[in-house]
Amino acid sequence: MDQKKPTDVSKPPRSEEESSTKVTNQLRPTRSRKAVACPQRNLQKAHFDSYHLAQDYLQRAVGHLNAKCYPEAISDFKIALQHNSESAEGHFYLGLAYFMISDYQKAKSAYQEAVVCEPGDATIHENLGIVCQLLNQHSEAAQAFTHAIALDPDQAESYSRLGSSLLQLGKRDEAKAAYCQALLVKLQK
User: Fold this and answer.
1) What pTM does this model have?
2) In whole angstroms, what is the distance from residue 2 CA to residue 29 CA?
3) How far apart are CA 160 and CA 145, in angstroms?
4) Residue 106 lies in a domain
5) Number of domains in the chain
6) In the Cβ-directed half-sphere of 77, how many Cα atoms lie within 13 Å?
7) pLDDT tens by residue, 81-132
8) Half-sphere CA count of 111, side-chain side, radius 13 A
9) For residue 93, what are the CA distances in angstroms to 70, 75, 81, 174, 182?
10) Rounded to an integer, what distance in angstroms lies between the CA atom of residue 55 and that of residue 80?
11) Which domain, by its residues, includes 62?
């Protein structure tokens, strides 16, 4: 899956060239949602069950996220998750919102919940690895990147990030192998 800037979750990724080299711009949404403007949206309509209510709050929260209204986004993501705690998407975007306000510990917790809900999503593992790197938890970061690579071996950035974490752990030979693999993947694209 191609990367894109984390603040634009309404459009699917286009190409590798759109990705930034800064860690703060490397978190990737796994899904695109309709953008909803940051100002309030009436959620007082009749709802048939908690799932639909959660979806409404999730959609509104993504709109807040796109509008860079992070406190509002976090609040709505939490409400959505109260109605559907098994939403990998809700946990994922909550992690993204926490990341955007530099609360990496809460972002890590949200991504860990997303992994529990959807363990087969490489992007969730990669974003978990990124926040672990920012928290200087390189062993956990390396583990997350290894999972991301196992799920999607065509992501050169995952190999590169794995190499960075391994280097921080003093595992130079393994880091070198990861960096070499990142180059091979980039050359194959």
Assistant:
1) 0.75
2) 10
3) 9
4) yes
5) 1
6) 25
7) 999 999 999 999 999 999 999 999 999 999 999 999 999 999 999 999 999 9
8) 31
9) 11, 12, 11, 32, 27
10) 7
11) 1-38+47-118
Q: Which two tokens stand for residue 171?
A: 């595992």
CB 111 within 8 A of CB 127: yes
CATH number at residue 52: 1.25.40.10
Tokens of 58: 């999730």
Within a domain: 9: yes
Give CA torsion, residues 133, 108, 115, 97, to 10 deg: -110
Helix orientation angle between 70-83 and 88-100, rounded to the nearest 10 degrees:
160
Three-class SS of the chain: CCCCCCCCCCCCCCCHHHCCCCHHHCCCCCCCCCCCCCCCCCCCCCCCCHHHHHHHHHHHHHHHHHCCCHHHHHHHHHHHHHHCCCCHHHHHHHHHHHHHCCCHHHHHHHHHHHHHHCCCCHHHHHHHHHHHHHCCCHHHHHHHHHHHHHHCCCCHHHHHHHHHHHHHCCCHHHHHHHHHHHHHHHHHC
Q: Which two tokens stand for residue 18?
A: 């759109």
Position with higher pLDDT, 36 vs 59: 59
